[in-house]
Each structure stands twice: as structure tokens, then as C-alpha cells.
Amino acid sequence: MITEKSHNIVDCTVRDGGLVNNWDFSVDFVQYLYKCLNEAGVDYMEIGYKNSPKLLKGSESSGPWRFLNDDFLQDAIQEKQTTKLSAMVDIGRVDVNDILPREKSLLDLIRVACYIKDVDEALELVRLFHDRGYETTLNIMALSNVKENQLDEAFEMISRSVVDVVYIVDSYGSLMPNDIRNLVKTFRKHLKNKRLGAHMHNNLQLGFANTLTAADNGVELLDSSVYGMGRAAGNCPTELLVAQLRNANYSLRPVLDMIEKYMIPLRDREEWGYLIPYMITGMLGEHPRSAMAFRSSPDKDMALQFYDMLTVPNVNS
Amino acid sequence: MITEKSHNIVDCTVRDGGLVNNWDFSVDFVQYLYKCLNEAGVDYMEIGYKNSPKLLKGSESSGPWRFLNDDFLQDAIQEKQTTKLSAMVDIGRVDVNDILPREKSLLDLIRVACYIKDVDEALELVRLFHDRGYETTLNIMALSNVKENQLDEAFEMISRSVVDVVYIVDSYGSLMPNDIRNLVKTFRKHLKNKRLGAHMHNNLQLGFANTLTAADNGVELLDSSVYGMGRAAGNCPTELLVAQLRNANYSLRPVLDMIEKYMIPLRDREEWGYLIPYMITGMLGEHPRSAMAFRSSPDKDMALQFYDMLTVPNVNS
Fold first, then answer.
1. Domain B8-269, what architecture?
2. What are the residue boundaries of the Pyruvate carboxyltransferase domain, all occurrences included (chains A, B) (predicted)?
3. Which of B154, B263, B272, B305 would bridge B119 by S-S if both were Cys, CB 3.0 to 4.6 A apart?
């Protein structure tokens, strides 16, 4: 049972949504989102990645939210309000020299995303960000494909680490509510001294339901994005969490304001959400990249062809 | 826990989807759907309403699936296959003289929809259809607004009746998984001698999750529609049930075939699914009619205006 203030919403519209439009959000868009999330009472806004463009080839065309620069951020967010700011980094793509001490940055939280094999390296980064004063999370991606003994090893390292929050990430949108219940139980058992977070995708129309399931089982940090904007099938919609989370005190109206002003027009130009190729990769527990490529092809609505490509042996050979 | 064959899928694409396009489905469409559902192993196909056009004024422009005629049905479905056929009737809109004995009809199941106040009248119809040889269900609509003592009275009548299956219907798409769990528990407790069914809507992106919750708690008949087609926010998608229901033996490929050939082009012409006005009526536990009218107006994307209309006192006076 959720008790008041035991959950925090982390809105990932800019960071995860940037995977849809190559982070081509205007400063006006991000400022308005920040205003609306503040008014709604949303706890965190993830305003982008803090990776280094030097470490990511071919990224010159990306918008500024992919490589957050602290000076740029100061200009964009002129007045810090109640909603805390978060940035994500990837193993091997972040230059630690770019990370200022927290008191010199607008950022409050740095989240380290990694695959299970890189947890040790991720925890070194976590230590460094922690020492510079930030709240930290560790987001283990692609959990649906992780073996139990790998997870056990990771739990040992994590429980000894300084990380504040450990995320259950359903990268492929393939997990069912019962899977979430079981994962939360496992994480809870092995990480008694850590808070938990959940980041769900909507391939099987379960983004919101899985996030609720996590919340009902004691997960505190709940990722979402406005109108569900995020890679492929997108995320748990912020508006649904804000409207329906029990014992919470969020305001829906400002989120609807953002949706009307920016998200509905944006959805006309960019695509995300429940579409059959994403449903198929979710069902198969695969990365959505094949589905994203297919949705960019002239055959994008040939549901059967895509299904056969992924399930019939040698259909393409 | 679901055991094999304890659940049946009832595909409502034609009946509930007809509320979107005024039952303007071609015979080709319905024949192809029947073929695909058979190949998929879906248990029932609800092929329309069996109301009487004499009892429904202003319905002249509706397609034939709104007023199923047995001769027409024999022509349309030339060869009966494994998937059983179902029709729905409404209290006060059905002429019982239209209902042939089952052996002279292609229909196997007749479902009676009613509000809680009409349960007694509905059960009289059920008795009649039962005596003519049909399987029967009672679908109590708008459950979210029913008071406990009303439900208790209804349970008494229902448990003494001949009805085979009693449905939990989330007409407004306003129920959460925990509500479903509680409702199933209540229904189970009072209706020990009846099978249960679930019909969910997708206003809060919970159509599939709520149907799974019902199934996990022992509900046997699970309503859905292909690509989620149904009034307003639509239904639990058949493709997701077919793909993800545990211990089941359905085939997804034929459902994808139907989606590719008919549903994706249809969705380009007709609107259903998760849209903000439907989310708002779902959240407020209201009938979606105001949202449907709003989506037909030039202001259809003015999310805030719609929210204020429904929540701010006297905004329209």
C-alpha cells in the first residue's frame, strides 16, 4: 500500500522523448514543460543526457539536450523552482570532467544507465557523482534478458555502494505486471538499504499498469513522460500518474496545458506509442530497433511481414 | 492462477467497434474477421446487436450488424467454423419475436446488456433466450456508479437465475486494477454458481491490464476487439490477449493479418483509442459521450477547455 509521499514522479519527456526527435526541443518547449511540471507538483524533470559529444560519433545534428552543458542549462532554466532536475549518463559516453560539483550546477540527480555486465563501472561513476554532491540512481537496462546469477552478483556490489536508488528498467516493454511484482520482490530482498525506481515502456499497453504495480509494491521513483513520449512505444504517461496515483497530491491541469500546447502538435510530426511492430518486439523481448527501422520504411504498416521477419527462420535469407 | 482453457476470448470488434462507424462494416470485412478469429483460435465472435430497428428511432442509416437478421447472417457467414457467434441485445430494444430457436440460428450466445435498475427485466430476457437454447450472459453496465445495496439485490436475483455468465463491465474505463480485483472478489463471493466475464475500456490505458487482472482472479470470458476498436477509447486489444495470455494456445499471426488488411486502413478513417478527452471522462467516471462530441468539434484538441468544461463549476453558464 502506498503511503503519502512515498512516491516521486520523474518526468523523462526531454531525455527519453529526445530519442524520438533527436533532442530537437526548443528552449521554449523545455521552459514551458518545466513550468507545467512545477505547477503539477512533479518531483523530478529529467532534462536530458549529460554525455559528451566527443565520445559519441555522428551526434553533431542532435539537439542540446543530448549533451547538457551547465552554462546552457543556466540560460535555459533561468529560475530554479521546486521540481528537481535530473540528467542521465551512459557508461563510456560521459566525460567526468564535465560534471561540476552540485552547488555549481542546476542538476540535483544524475542517473547512470548500464547493462548488467557494466554494473561495476557504473558504480564507479555513481561514487564520483555522489562525492560531487548529487543524488544518484543506477538504471540497469534490459532486465528481461538478465540471468539470475548475474543479478545476484550485481546486487552484492550495489548494496555495498553509495547509490541512492536502483531502477527496474523494462527496456523492451516486454514485462507483464506479474513479472514486475516478482522483480520488485527480488530487488527488495537483496537491496534492503536502497530505494527502488521503475522505468516502463508501453509496447504491450502496460506502461502505466506496470508502473502502478511497481508503486503498489513499494517502488518510490516512478518514471513517466508527458503524453507518453519516448522511444518506440513510449513510456508511462505522466498525465495518468498525476491523475490516478493514490494518496498523491499532484495537479493534472498543468500537464494537460503542456499536452495541448506542445505535445499534440508534436505527435502530429513525430511518431511514438502503441504500434504493431513495437508490440511484436515487446512480445518477443527484443530491442525495438528493428521495429523503429521498419516504421521508417515504406512497408511500415505491413504487420505480417514484420512478424514473419522476426519469427520465421530464414525468411530474409 | 489461470489454468489451461479456463478463459475464453470474446472478440467484440463488430459489435463494440460498430459504435465507432455506425456498423458500416462490409460483408468482406466481417467474413475476413471471422476467418482470422477462427485461425487464431478465438472462442467467440460478437457479430453485432440483435436489437429491433422498430424499437430504435433514427437508426435507418446504421449498417446491418446493428440489427442482425438471421437470414442475412446465414448469407454472410456461409460456413460455420469453430469460433462461436454471439449477439448483444439491450433491454427495451429487442423484439423477442426476432429470436429464433438456437438450432435455426447461427448464433450460439446472446448477451443481455442492462443497467443495475433493469436486472430483473434483463433476467426475464435471459430466461427466454436460455429456453430457446442459447448460452447467455448478463452484462451489467456502468458498474463504477452502482451502490453496494443495489448490487446485493441484483446478486440475489442473478444467483437464482439461469444465466450462464455474469459480466463485470467497466463502461466508462474508469476502474483501476485494484478495483477490478475487489469487484471480482465481490462477484465471486455472491455468485458462486456462475461463471464471470470482463469487458474493459481503455480510457486510462488499462484495458489490457484490467482484463489480465480479471483473468488472474478467475474471470473466464474476456472481451476484446482487434486493434482495440470500440467506442471512444476502445477496448482491450484482441492481439494482446492472444499474444500474452498465459497457458493459452492462441495464434497471433491471423490477428495481425486482420490488422494489416483492414484495421490499420480503418483507423485512418475512423477514430478510437487513448485520447485526452476520453482519459478525462475515464478519470471522472463519466460516460464518454461529452468527449465523443468534443472530438467531433473543431476544438477537439483543446484539452484544457474540455477539462475545465467538466470540472470547473459553471464554466459554461
1. Alpha-Beta Barrel (3.20)
2. 7-260
3. B154
pLDDT, one tens digit per residue, over A135-153 is: 999 999 888 788 888 999 9
Beta-carbon contacts of residue A221 (< 8 Å; ≥ 6 apart): A7, A8, A10, A44, A137, A165, A167, A195, A196, A197, A198
H-helix or E-strand spanning residue B133: none
Instruction: Give the residue extent of every domain in chain A.
Output: 8-269, 276-311
**Averaged pLDDT, B299-305:** 96
pLDDT of residue B22: 97
* Phi, psi (degrees; rounded to nearest 5) at B53: -65, -25
In chain B, which residue's Cα lies nearest the Cα of A276? B256
What cell does B154 get? 441484483
Residues of B in contact with A283 (CB under 8 A): 243-244, 252
Distance (Å) from the C-alpha of residue A67 to the closest C-alpha of chain B? 32
Residue that is written with C-alpha cell 549518463 in the block: A89
What value, to the nearest 5°, has the Cα angle with vertex B21 and ends B89 and B271? 125
Residue with cell 488499462: B206
Beta-carbon neighbour count of residue B316 at 10 Å? 8
ipTM over cut 0.85: yes
> CA-to-CA distance for B244 and A175, rounded, in angstroms?
10
Give the C-alpha separation, A239 to A252, whole Å. 6
Contact state of B209 with A243 under an 8 Å Cβ cutoff: no
